[in-house]
From TrEMBL:
InterPro entries: DUF1963, YwqG-like_sf. SUPFAM superfamilies: Hypothetical protein YwqG (SSF103032). Transmembrane segments: none annotated. It comes from the Bacteria. This is DUF1963 domain-containing protein. It holds the Pfam family DUF1963. It comes from Sphingomicrobium sediminis.
Length: 309
């Protein structure tokens, strides 16, 4: 239903523009707006009339939706903890194997060290490694390496150190020239780093995701549909504003996997906005990976996206 909401928002914007151009036009005369009849017919075809949804139907639907929940490690910032070679954290210096240079992005500039995942310190998560450290770097540009045209080809670097970082050498932190700051990290996270403490949780499907949208497909004209919507959008079952590994992604605008890329079905890392990290206007960022690539430890094929209001 999210895709219909987006289309409807565009149409409403068209109505407002139409009224501005034609002051006598009524905001309720939707049928006269170009494309509205086609939109209505498509929605009705996709949502045929049918019997009212019984309580059993509704409960089965809720159980199916809630059954999509996945285990996750919530990562809570704790600036009181020391920043070391290992551990989960945001920013700071990067510990790299001796002789390995600081990564550069495709634009030729040193990449921004965004976050580190220490799998040995995470609770056991299905399909995820139980050892090794993953470091994520993003390009120093206005989009932090996101590729709007193809989110599966971002300008990011993922370094997986299967054996850990016992003999690594501290490098950085890389600090951008004054006046050229594009890093989403706040000052302390850039210069010192902020440790992240993991906690196991079960995270359900977000109302912004394609799974939540498809769960409502075809039911829009059935009596009782509002109960399904209420459950999907219930804040009690929504995703928390938190960083996490595993679980499901969160989007501010909409799930960009609607038009493909649904196979990027695992959250390698979600980074929300907080006092240590800001994505535009309080946005959300997701590093997504295909389950098969995750199992194979192929971290060089990621989908990276962030959006804000």
């Amino acid at each position: 239903m999210i895709k219909y909401a987006l289309i409807f928002a565009i149409i409403v914007g068209g109505i407002l523009l139409w009224r501005a151009i034609r002051p006598g036009a009524s905001s309720t005369d939707l049928s006269r707006l170009p494309g509205m009849e086609e939109f209505k017919k498509k929605w009705e075809n996709d949502n045929p009339e049918g019997p009212a949804l019984s309580e059993e139907d509704i409960n089965e639907w809720k159980a199916a939706l809630d059954g999509l929940a996945l285990p996750a490690a919530i990562l809570t910032p704790d600036p009181s903890l020391p920043v070391e070679a290992g551990g989960n954290r945001l920013g700071g210096p990067a510990y790299l194997p001796a002789g390995e240079a600081w990564p550069k992005a495709a634009n030729g500039l040193p990449a921004i060290f965004l976050a580190q995942i220490d799998f040995t310190q995470l609770p056991d998560l299905p399909d995820f490694p139980r050892r090794g450290i993953l470091q994520l770097f993003v390009a120093s540009d206005d989009l932090s390496g996101m590729n709007i045209d193809d989110p599966t080809a971002p300008d990011i670097i993922a370094l997986y150190h299967r054996g850990g970082l016992e003999d690594a050498v501290q490098q950085g932190p890389y600090i951008e020239p004054e006046g050229e700051g594009t890093s989403p990290l706040m000052d302390k996270a850039v210069t010192e780093g902020v440790a992240l403490t993991p906690t196991l949780a079960m995270l359900g499907v977000s109302s912004s995701s394609w799974q939540g949208d498809e769960a409502l497909d075809g039911l829009g004209r059935r009596e009782g549909f509002n109960k399904l919507e209420d459950h999907l959008y219930d804040e009690k079952r929504g995703l928390p504003a938190a960083h996490h590994v595993g679980g499901h992604p969160e989007f501010v605008q909409s799930d960009l996997r609607f038009d493909g890329n649904k196979d990027f079905d695992r959250v390698l890392l979600r980074l929300t906005s907080d006092k240590y990290l800001q994505w535009g206007d309080v946005g959300e960022a997701n590093f997504l990976i295909r389950r098969d690539d995750l199992v194979a430890r192929q971290f060089d094929r990621l989908l990276f996206t962030w959006d804000c209001s």
